[in-house]
Batch of 3 targets.
Target 1
Amino acid sequence: MSVIAPAGAGYEVVVGRAADDKPRPVARRAASAGAEAWRRVWFSRWTRFLGPLLILVIWQLAVTVDHLPANQLPSLGNVWSTARDLIADGTLQSALLTSLRRVALGLLLGVSIGTGLALLSGLSLVGERIIDPVMHMFRTMPVLALLPLFVLWFGIGEKAKVYLIGWAVIFPIYINLYAGIRGVDAKLVEAGSVLGLNRWGQIRHVILPGALPQFLTGLRLALGVSWLVLVAAEEINATSGLGYLITNAQNLMQTDVIFVGLIVYSLLGLATDILVRLIERFTLSWRSSFVTK
Amino acid sequence: MALQLRDEVSADTEAAVRVRGYGRRFGERTVLSGIDLDLRDGELVALLGASGSGKTTLLRALSGQDPDADGHVTVPRERAVAFQDHRLLPWKRVWRNVLIGVPKAGKAEALAALEEVGIAGRANAWPGTLSGGESQRVALARAFIRRPRLLLLDEPFGALDALTRLRMHRLLRELCARHHPATLLVTHDVDEAISLADRILVISGGQVSLDHWIGDDRSARTGTAVLALRARLLAELGVDPNTSHVTKEN
């Protein structure tokens, strides 16, 4: 065997056949084919459900193996039938609708105000000097500690809950949009002004699109916060809504109902995440990570 | 012939750009001072200078982006700028980028401008998917759609590879010949200046230290004339062409 090409210590054939013309070991090929199939399996979107499924399995195992009393950890089947009952008599739907309405109104309020303040503060020096310190002062107040105050001011009706959600939502929106506006590439702003864009044109074509990715990050955080605050608001004083459903179940020792409520919350979290992903895919299609090859 | 033509133009009082006593200080540091300069319609002027000499500062003043400068500068309202980094807005498709700041024009005009720089096929692409050369073509389309009387180019080919740069040189010459803007090309590349410009300015020590007219004289761009000019420009820029040659061989 005459080998001219460098071989042995320090060299490795990375493309094509080795210089001694030996086929590569069969075992390695088979392994790489297997790895390829394995990779394909993991790339399919359905594998995203494996984690949640695993949780359910562990849950059911805990119930059957440990024989936990149903008022501590109800079985899957128990929760499922409770959910069906709650849906059948319309309790769950009406609670969900009430809660969704509160969150939607709160978000509308908070996102509008947060966006407005961030625009004022991000686009003008005067706005920044006046608004920014105040925002950072309020931001650190625990929202839940404000709940008694909101009840005092706005009563125990819908207003207090919606306003509290709105209040909590203002901050993630404000902070992210403000940072997004201030972070827009100064070179693009200069290019815009050289191209003859006036102030409004700059804002519309350069600054706002440039700040959009950060705004959506803020929106994602805001959606999470809104559910969190909703539950707290509903658990303290309400006669309807998901939080009320859970608090009521707690008083009546209905652990299965508590579980149904919690599962609905987690599904809502999932749904809002999908919603933001869709918005991102639609509005940020220019970003290279979304550009289809 | 070229000289005569130039005299005819300068007899016409209408210069595209008129700079008198221009200067610029940043705090205590004076970058440029006492600069007088006229650019005529259709003239392609290369502005050479070492890094930090103030070339880009002067260009920014001519683009109207530096109201704090000293002196008196008059430029046409129809002007366009292209930068070394293309500065296309990544969230607008190529044809919409061409139309930024040209509210009266529509997609047809944008396509025509892209056609002119040979890149109409990428009109609907996102800027993030373009190569460096393609991006600069779009930047040129965005400049020429404004029908500028003054075109300011800030090292537009500095980041391109050698082959792409040669293609872009030819493209720029064609576009300038067709549209006749007064063009100021800021560059640090002596060879680029010699091959493209009608006239070469060198900035050093805060002044225009050399104002050399090449014009239509083709012989000035070939043979030994080029070597002499090259040596002279390099010397003006503070580089001794002989020593730099020797150090390269070592």
Target 2
Amino acid sequence: MTEKGLKVRLMKDKLFKFIILSLSIISLAPLFLILFFVFERGLKVINWSFLTQLPKPVGVAGGGISNAIVGTLMLIAIACLVAVPLGIAAGVYLSESKKTKIAYFTRLTVDVLQGTPSIVIGIIAYLWIVLPMGKFSALSGGIALGLMTLPLVVRGSEEVLKLIPHDIREASLALGVPRYRTILKVIIPAGIPGIVSAILLGISRIAGETAPLLFTAFGNPFMNLNIFKPVNSLPLLIFNYAMSPYEDWQTIAWGASVVLILIVLGGNILSRIVVRKWQVQF
Amino acid sequence: MKWGKEGAFRGVLLIGTLVIGLIVFAILLSLLWGSLPVFKALGWRFFPGKNWNPVTDNFGALPFLLGTLITSFLALIISLPLSLSIAILLGEFLRVGRGSSFLKSMVDLIAAVPSVIYGFWGLMILVPLMRNIEIKLGVAPYGVGIMTASIILSVMIIPNTASIAREVIKLVPADLKEAAYSLGATRYEVVRKVILPYARSGIFAGVLLSLGRALGETMAVTMVIGNANEIPKSLFAPANTMASVIANEFTEATGDIHYSALIAIGITLFFVTTVINLIGRYGIKKLAIEE
């Protein structure tokens, strides 16, 4: 009887291991399928002219995505100008005054901002910038993306600066260095790799964002360097071409997907390398 | 002089910090202000209203509320066994080593792939597949619809639950597990009777964060849900979610009430996701684990 009970229990254990393993494989399968299809269909499209030419009308062979690449870079640059100074200032403040009421509420608002759906951020950028200016623009799209990275930069810099040991700060203060110079010249430099890594992670997150750009940056079939005019971006181009009925355009969307995935992956990997190679270990 | 610089530095930091609070406050105000006209025109009929008709300026949000609820919960149900398996695998069976870190980066990669690419893949590969399945099942073969959107969503939200559940499973004290092993428990029994009960609240917090992500997810859903502004008749029928209707109609909104109705849907989405995220984050902070 007990012999039989034991067998059943061991069987259950084996079955459990089998189920866990197979469900884990099943959950990763879509990822591999997606990467496989994107690279299988997109890689053959990519060549030099694909990266440097402008899109062509339907039916004309060739055509590239240069305007979307430039647009994405522009949007990222604007987003960084918004998020980086503000984010680092708040991050430093939060790590310096951990328990004030202001710190408590700021952490709460950062949590709220981080959880805000991207489409809602799009509405906000539309209400704040597109409506008063009367037109879609790269500026509004960049600010929308900036609002999305802001929480990541704040949290990243706060976490990193908190970890810097007190000894270093006290050594600097003992030498008679004023508090603000200690923060600027000792604390922040020690935390720079972590902050850079948070920014890179933020960039790789917003590089693929589409929803907040639908009614801000809007998209543009031409090359545009003016921040007050609409620009195209890689995710917008993928969305528009994917939803189009033309096979040529869908092919271009696969190619653009490869470029976008490489940018996002690059940002992720770079952010890990920065921490691993540069971060001072205490 | 020295104090002046010190004060100026503190001031800059403080201003930067306060600006973030102000931004969030202003977001709330703008959404409230923007959604006012539709409430003035329709009152509270807006939420239970079943029809969405821009031509007659009659707006009811119920189809989208239902669309979001159904897709999100369906996605949670599909993804929970998957993300929990990964969490148990990484938190208990494969805690260290190359295989473990490879798996961990793969899970991170699921979160890193942009949502528009999930949508594109879903549209090109999953939708035809679903159409075939629907023909076999004998339901109307749209291909696009709630089920397709939920499947895509369920993949996208795996990392949120998996990474938090993994951390709490790792936090289960070794003493407890060893005590159970020493009594002759099998691994399955340890996981079932010791680890899962101990990690329950952490897993729940992870599920809430997944839910927050699923509710607000826009692009992938918009591309495969079929965009029908009506109450879904079945799990395979086309529908719309709160996020997808905004994505579809905002640039083409006709008239102030239409805009305002979309913004009102936006503020509803904002409130719901904020509450769910804050509860989830509170849960995580109580457990004092890092994301």
Target 3
Amino acid sequence: MNNHSVRLRAKRKTVNILMLSLTAVATLLVIAPLLWILGYVIRQGLPAITPQFFTKLPTPVGVAGGGILNSLLGSLMTVGLGLAIAAPIGVLTGLYAATHPDAPLGVFVRFGTDVIAGVPSIVMGIFAYTLIVLPQRHFSAFSGGVVLAFIMLPIIIRTTDEMIRLVPASLREASLSLGAAEWKTTFSVILPAALNGVITGAMLAIARAAGEAAPMLFTAFGNPFLNINFNQPVATLPHTIFVYAISPYNDWHAKAWATALVLITLVLLLNVLARLIIWWRTRLLGSIRG
Amino acid sequence: MIKSQPLSSHPSLARVRRFIQHGDRFYQLLLIVAALSVLVLVLAIGNELWRNSALSRHAFGWKFLITSTWDPALNNIFGALPFILGTLVTSIIALIVAIPLGVGTAIFLAELAPDWLRTPLGFLVELLAAVPSVVFGLWGLFAFIPVFVRPTSDLLNKTLGFISLFQGPVFGPSRLAAGLLLAVMVFPTITAVSRDVLRAIPNNQREAALALGATRWEAILQVILPYGASGLLGAIILGLGRALGETIAVTMVIGNNLDLSASLLHPGYTMASVIANEFTEATFDLYLNALIEIGLILFITTLLINLLARLLIWRVSRRVKGEVRL
């Protein structure tokens, strides 16, 4: 081998090692913000977390104590309403997409779901505003719940679709050959077999919806008082974080961090649990089918 | 219900059978109605935004997109150009940072990482996607800007300040801050989709390149990446869609200022953040209609962008499936 090709080979090897290491560095840089965010939220938020923080209403600036009971309740109401609207429609739509994968409407549903998932949540907020708030002439927990339903819908459809398709076809065929009707097969064989998966979809949807602040600005609107009337405005956790964060007061910033800690704990726990279920099911059902 | 009918001619059996058949018809109808909800939702959003922006559309026409006067206080003249430009500039900054890092991470996860590392790292990337936007904003405002964006801005201003993009004075909340925060927020989108695209590429492509004597990097650069190019482009466009519509985090770090200078280090405004900031303050109909028209522009843009991204990603997965079957 002459000198030139030896040098070329050394150069190719160096470039190889350099670029491969750079991809590892990129991975570190992508992961780093997550660890930074988690560490920072815990450090800033933990000192303000006391039992009263969950059971008291907000206090004015400068008054010690106070909590986020109103936001917790408001988030529960809006997310609960959103789930109650989106879950039945989403599961049925997911069922359709999974059982008619090649029908034109089935293809459209899958495609349309992906597209809806990309619509910015602030646009969904405007939609709910013109649909509900404008005719009613007042902000309400109800309109907030409806926005969250739109945001949850694509997540529930997609997970249901994927999880139903993981159910072995032999289960469905066995039920049909025993003489059960299509709907009976679906509701007493296929859905129970995919139930964990469908619940997972709902969990991911809840996690996503619980963190939405933007559309809440002009639907649920926020409310410093305790309210359980769906016709009245309510505060929600992410909206409260936003309001506290952009205020000029240090003790409100501290409350923003504590509320963020509550929210992020909730959201990440739901996500971790959901991913574990999906991972476990995909392996289990994959091995049955394979 | 049908387990023990002794006689096939039993009258109740016919009833049961009829009920079950009707049940099936009803069930199919129910599924179709639900499935149509997706279509109805898209059309309804478009329709509502279109109807409720009529005043502004009639008053300003296409000029709305290219004029930069936003004056709700005195003259009631509205032009969306500063917001459109702000959205474009922050999204471009985000992509410039996120493409190399996101695709690099995808390469590491799909091609290089051993199994025991791949799953937990992929998991962390997915958790980053789950962090609520408002938490990104809070972190951006109180940690990311003072610790990272401010010093970076100062450095850029000192070394490249003669370019109008980096002219001073340096602010904390700025277009650069919003762009960099958006980059962090689109990492997971670009990374996760690119990783899935790369993993869908059949192994014989890798093996052929390596057998011809390519190094791992040469195989990736000259064979794998071109093979998955349209899927990777789809991943990037999907990230762009996320960046364009991101609202609350951007509103918290961009400074919300109608500053028309070219400097990235100055505060700015985006389409989504002007809606978030001024929607509840829109005291008269024309003002509200102008904001809703900005929402309409955002809706149409993200719709087209997502359509394009999904088509690109679908093309790759279809082609790959076809080849696997061979």
